[in-house]
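The freezer alarm interrupted the setup, so I double-checked each line after restarting. Inputs confirmed:
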Amino acid sequence: MRGCNPARATSYRDIAPGIRLVLTAPMLPQALVAASLRPFILSILADGASYGYELIQRVHALTEGQIRYTTSTLYPVLHDLENRGLLESFWQATPNAPRRKYYRLTPKGQKALATAQQQWLHVHGALMKLWGPELSLG
Amino acid sequence: MFNLEKALATWRRSLEHRRVFQQDDLDELEQHVRDQVQGLMAKGRSEAAAFGKAMQEMGTHGMAEAEYQKVYWGKVRRQHQTRDEILWRLSMLKNYIKIALRNSRRQKGYTFINIVGLSVGLACSFFILLWATHESSYDRFHTQGDQLYQVMRHVELGGQTYTWSSMPMPLADVLEKDFPEVADAERISWPQQYIVTYEGESFREPGHYADSAFFQLFTFPLLQGNPATVLADPTSVAISAGLAERLFGTDWQAGSVLGRALTINHGKDFTIAGVFEDVPDASSLQFEILLPVQEFVDQNEWLYHWGNSSLRIVARLKEGASSAALNEKIAKMIDENHEGANATVFLHPYKDLYLRSNFKEGRLEGGRIEYVRIFLVVAVFLLLIACINFMNLATARSMQRAREIGVRKVVGASRKSLVGQFLGESMLIALLAFGLAALLVIALLPFFNDLTGKAIALGDLDPVFLLVALGLALLTGLLAGSYPALYLSSFDPIGVLRSTLRPRTGAAHLRKALVVFQFTLSILLIVGTLAVYEQVEYIRTKSLGLDRENVIYMPREGALTDQYDAFKQELLARPGIASVTASNQNPLSVGNSTTDPTWEGKDPDDNTLFYIINANHDFVETMNMEVVAGRAFSPAFATDSVGYLINERTAEAMGMDDPIGASLEFWGQKGHVVGVVKDFHMSSLYAAIEPTIVRMAPERASRVFVRAEAGRTEEALASLEAVQQQFNPAYPFRYEFLDAEYEETYRSEVVMGTLANIFALIAMLISCLGLLGLASYTAERRTKEIGIRKVLGASAPHLVLLLSRDFTRLVLVAFLIAAPVAYYLVQNWLDQFAYRVELGFGLFIGAGVAALVVAWLTVSYQSARAALANPVKTLRYE
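Predicted 3D structure, all chains:
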């Protein structure tokens, strides 16, 4: 945007004054979906142990159907986080649930989550400075 | 009815053999699918539809496998299974090797063809590489090599441009004094033989005169003496370590030999001021002894004249000086000091002297580098031919391995691992071939050295060379294995295991193309060999205008200078001697030339170059030259002391139909033409015959030529030695044969002819090995067809013809491609010679027929075996 007129255009409002922008959440680009996978996993597991299928469902619900990870994307990432020591896994069966492989955060995972939060908030904050408070999800 | 448990089990089995999915992963995935199916069924889908949807989301196995692969090693490490994993991989490797060995043992013939073909091809290329490396190492050992230049000149005379490296001596001084870019201008005389005497013992040693900067310009390390001063004193001498050993014994290094006096040519004494390491093989300058150039200059006053030339000059430029810029400035240096020289002086990089110094009409036209290039191409050809055998046999025999590939694929081998396996196999064969080739090289190196006249020792080999050789072998393995690996690994396992897979026609076409390519290369080499052979034979047998056989020559030195006539009479009285003469030139390689001759009616602008031979009586008779007009020199005519014999070209150049009696003047001597001899080849067949004058000058005739009676050479030699010892007891006896000397001139052609011969044979051999393999494969594949044909009444000859027809067609196509290419290349080579054979069609037809016959012989053995087999047996086959 700054490319159009670097002297004046410092925010959306300068380009389209008086118009309230409404984001209708279009198809998310692949890169953003992929980048958000790790923060999603870490954040959901911060609430307690969970398993693959539930993780996919949770993200699906949280994003109102916008993001649906496939198994071949999710599980290798879970295994990778486990290889790096951010997660640990255990098998568990309860009387009313079949045997499933659960994942939970390790202390190292907690730290990684805190870092991720900082990073995402930082980006988010910077963008909000440009977009202003009027901007909201419609 | 859809059964979820069954579907899950089937799905799970399809993933189970894939190594990246561990049991734990599969349990996890299975539970995921179950959860998802339940979730979807809760939304009202049927079980079958829910399962289908879950599978769809799972994506393809390949995709999942790739993702799991990325984290696989991390998992192995986390689970502390690295050791097991490596052991598993090693066991796979063991399996690959075991299968490879089993296959090669089961198919001994094919393995033999592959390994023999590859190792012979590799051995040949190693020899060629050794030779080429040695050739290009010439004159490269001088540390200041990049600053050294041979001073040369193009000279335009009589409408032709000659290129000479003989220079007027004053040019050296001018270069050194007037051009700040030139650090040194070193004068070096042409090589000659010196008689070196120490304490009564004499040796003949090659050497030359040189300026005192010699050891500072060139890198010939001194074992004793100071490089800066070694030739500074006009009475000093430098000798090689080898000569020092001959003179003073093997322990000469025990003390200093500096200061000892050597008598040169039974005249002056010179003091040893330096001993240098023996001159390496790869040096253009070869010498055992060096004398100060001042001695040569003092003996030859005429050297000071700009119109004369009898020295080489090597200039060392200062660092960073541009030879191109200097060339512009020095171009006319000779003409400025000597009118009508028509010379363009230029600097030729000294390190190019050996490989690139053929000048034609003033332009650089390569030189020995051409041979280096030709043979490097031959090396590539041989390797390609061997590679093609490998490819062809591997793809042709692929059906044999189809089942193995099918099974491997079914139990989970990826295409990548199969490609790896087959490439590994070809590399293994390449390595084996490399080992064999190395053994061949070691075993055959002495013969190779003998043949090429080199002294290559494996001990001196650069380690880089070994790496290059090994790399070449592996590259060959990679190239040979690449296509088979891609082809074999592409088999569809289901087709293979149901035996519905048919060999692809694409592969068969490629195989044919490759055979055509192989035979094209082989025919090219055969034609090349035949052409070189014919030219060499032409050189050997060409009538040169004189009879070079049975002529012995030796230096006229010592007592012979004054007592030549007595010597001649004594010789003629001995057995075996037919006639005796003296001359300063070998008439087959005349090196003395001048533009000086004048005659009545000569055009003042005419600057034709005349070659001059200083001779004595009986010259024409001894050489067996043909006198076409007038007569030869005769003692009966006192006026012959200023008489000239000329060749036909001279008469032509003088524009005279009847030159007998015409007056001719040069070098301050006026005389007349007494006879005309038929043109003879006074230089190599690369050059045209030039105008040549034989001059009666007994005092300058520095060599004695003796014609032996035919068949009595041994006797003549004994007579010559006896008489020589009688007159010159202090001079070691040394002689040359005129014909041997002549053949020595064409040594590189002869060597090249022999090498080309060998390589063409080997190329043909390797091609035929491949053909043999293919033919036996074809015969085997068509066993049943042949059986049926036989039962239906086909005769054996008919069947042989049927089986040979395909190969015949391939060889014919190869011939059609090779013939024009060969024609072009061979004409190009022959064009260098002023006198050459004309190539007939016969040569090409001969090469084609030879290839065809050899191919037939190769194929017919297999075909005949198949055709003669009992059809009852062949039809029961399988």
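Quick read of the result. Helices of chain A lie at 12-15, 30-46, 52-62, 71-83, 107-131.
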